[in-house]
Amino acid sequence: MEEKRILKKQLNLMYITNKPDIADYALKSGANRIILDLEIRGKESRQGSKTQRPHNLADFKKLRESITNGFLSARINPIAYPETENEITFLIDSGVNQIILPYFRSIAEVERFLTLINGKTQTCLLVETMDSLSLIDKLVKFNEVDEFYLGLNDLSLDLKLNFPFTVLSKGIINEAIRLLDSLEKKFGFGGLAPAGSGLVIGKKILAELVHQKASTVFLSRAFHKCATSVEELQKDIDLKKEIQYIRKLETAFMERTKVQEIKDMVNTYRLIDSI
Question: Is the pLDDT of residue 48 over 80?
Answer without folding.
Answer: no
